[in-house]
Amino acid sequence: MGGLQIPLEHVLVLSALLFCCGLLGLMLRRNIIFMLVSLEVMLNASALAFIAAAAKWGQADGQVIFLLILTIAAAEVSVGLGLVLQIQRRFKTLDMDAATALKER
Amino acid sequence: MNLLWLIPMFPLLSAVLLIVTAGRLPKQLVAILGAGSVGAAAVCVALLANDFFADGQIRELTLWTWIALDNFTPGISFYVDGLTVVMMSVITGVGFLIHLYSLEFMADDESFSRYFAYMNLFVAAMLLLVMADNLLLLYLGWEGVGVCSYLLVGFWYRDPNNGKAARKAFVVTRVGDVAMALGLFLLFTELGTLDIQPLMAAANNQWQVGDTLPILATALLLGGAVGKSAQLPLQTWLPDAMAGPTPVSALIHAATMVTAGVYLIARTHELFLLAPPTMMAVAWVGLLTLLLAAFAALAQNDIKRILAYSTISQIGYMFLAMGVGAFSAGIFHLMTHAFFKALLFLAAGAIIHCLHHEHDILRMGGLRKRLPVVFASFLIGSAALAALPFTSGFYSKDAILLSAWLTADIGPILWLGGLLGALLTAIYSFRLVFIVFFGHANTEPDRQPGLKMSIPLILLCVLAAIGGWINIPLTEVFASPPSDHSLIAHSVEYIGIATPLLGLLIAYLLFLSRAMSIAKLTESTAGQAIQGFLRSGWRFDALYHYTLVWPFVGIARLCKNEPVDQIYNAIVCTLKWFHRRLIIVQNGELRWYATTMVFGIVIFVAMILRHSL
Amino acid sequence: MIEVLFYSASVIALLATILALTRSNAAHALIYLIVSLLAIAVLFFLMGAPFAAALEILIYAGAIMVLFVFVIMMLNLGEVGEAQERGWLSVKSWILPGIMAALLFIELLIALSISSEQTIALTSGVAVPPKEVAMSLFGPYVLAVEIASMLLLAGLVGAYHLGRRFIVRREGVHEGGDS
Fold this sequence. Notes:
- The complex is a heterotrimer.
- By secondary structure, chain A is mainly α.
- Chain A is 74% helix and 0% strand.
- Chain A contains 3 helices and no strands.
- In chain B, 73% of the residues lie in helices and 2% in strands.
- Chain B has helices spanning 6-21, 27-55, 82-105, 112-131, 135-153, 160-191, 196-206, 212-228, 237-240, 246-255, 260-267, 269-273, 276-299, 303-323, 327-354, 367-370, 372-385, 392-406, 411-437, 451-466, 490-512, 519-523, 525-535, 540-560, 563-583, 590-612, and strands at 59-65, 75-80.
- The longest helix of chain B has 32 residues, at 160-191.
- Chain B is globular, with a radius of gyration of 30 Å.
- Chain C is globular, with a radius of gyration of 21 Å.
- The model of chain C is unreliable at 172-179 (pLDDT under 50).
- Chain C is built from 7 helices and no strands.
- Helix content of chain C is 81%, strand content 0%.
- At the A-C interface, α1, α2 and α3 of A face α1, α2, α3, α4 and α5 of C.
């Protein structure tokens, strides 16, 4: 696999595209599960950019950062899904337009 | 005699006791406490006066230091000289008679105890005022009597008009008191003490006759005196103060408190002697006030208001005396005035008491036979007020007029003014007598004055009649000897004697025999206008209302909405407006937050790009 | 040939992502997302990061996605939820998010074009072995590892706390009670 020669920009463009897709999903969807999915996509897109940078310089640092991103994603998803359960219980819906108050009225 | 402190202590103790018990004591006990305490003080004063006449020594007593501030240490200390003895005798003597009289006058009042509490407190404060050896303690007594005056004018507080009169009395005298306080500040900063005797000595040492500072200081003190003594231009409160019970008018608004201004000038006369312009002002204030009030008294129909204007007028005489340097004559007139005016007020009170609270003299008449004691009292009182020969008022007023005559330059003018005042005094006092006691009986008295009313009347009759022969010990106090009256032409003296008799004759012709008639004059339009003008006290109330009260109320009304705060309110309103606009953004919708965040990011990145391009 | 593999994986990742985000059925969306993640794992592998590719598959496509699946199963949204979801995806709701995302993408492209003018960057094609990653993880980045472990612990506690209440309610012990 030594001979792979791909312009860095291409990877970065892909990363940006994925990020924008995630962002679009975040703004578009009203379902909290899809919002979390969009966040995963965005995190993943930034991870891709780091790996690309790591490949560009041939250093391990990019992969270390990827690992940290992975950690954040795992923690975020576990807490986020716990919240999803709570929201379903409180509001009887996953529609975030309906759940606008932190406190029960 | 170091029992001086007992004298103010008796009424003060009684007042405190009556206030603390708040009307729970039986009426008998209240009567004993109220009148008895003043009686005890009167006995003490009599003993003191007896001693004083024997040795003529000044008595001083320091109870304790009131305030100790560096070199400013006014004490609760008393200073008793001839002037003080005279004042104390008047206050406790006349005061006791009036208290005795009040026992019957107020017998049916539900606030019997409260009345005596205030009265005793007043006597205590007034004694403090005259006995004080420093001006600060004098000021305490000064304000104390002001408070008691307020409380007693508004004694029947259920009628809002009485409350208004009380507030007016309090506020108007406050104007003078502020001037007096400023005067005290000035004296202290300039001379470093408020103890009266050292103060006088220091003033004589440091200041020359006619310097600016003594003129300023005495002018400020004069402001206080004018306010307290209801002189021009602060005289408007006294006629309204007649809203209180009649014995109150007799004690406070005729015999004692209103003469405190005269006492103040007499007490600080050495200071006034350093300021000839102020002396001149005092004389002119006195002259103008006595004429103005005498004219106003002519037109009144309310028996108490006639007496009130007459009081203002007589105090005007005292001021005139002070102004021309005849301090002894002024204090002499103060004393005789206390006798005959208290007598007149008490007699008027007896009429009001016996005539179902009737105040209008036109609805009285023919009381000569029905209330003989009152008639006798009124006759003697009016004679003394009009200064008919050989009554007490004659001697004092004569002395004042002769002293005025001797004044340099303007002496004859002052004398003539005083003489005109004397003529008017005779006319209005005998108008009162003739209308009330002669002619048709319009209202029948429903009772006769009892013993407790009659005794004070008779005693005061005696005093008013022979009070002129009392020799008051003032020569020590007022260093400058009274002018030698023997220099005066006899014609001047005869005119002075004849004028009140002329007034009596005019009153007789106008109001008793009806030989002359002023009906045409009073019924014409101009006459009505003049009468209304005089009856309202030269429209001073209206003048003050439009020049002072009205603008003040206007400003107060403006400030009620706090105009300065409007600026800050505007800022707050603007912020609130923006807040309400901004709060729309914070709607709790997650997608909206995400969108706005992205919008922010877009802007932010665009800004960075713009830089790097 | 290997470039063709790279670009086709890229296209698959992009398409799968778009499909995942526009589905109305959450389970379908998750399957597409897994596809997208696997394609990105291929990209990682091709860019010389085999360790990262393995973790992508194991943790992302495996563990995290399984969590999603569990939650979806627990909520049991069904047909009604799906219909509702379709109703929310109207054309009108696309406008503002679309504009925003497009603007941001254009800006990112401009940024890339600015930087590529200066240096024509290429991937080196040199693989970074797991050992090297591990060396730097426990070398200069040891503090970051510690912080990450603490973050995971916090996530664990938070998830347990939130989820426990849900379970209690489902059992009906504290109906509408402690909240």
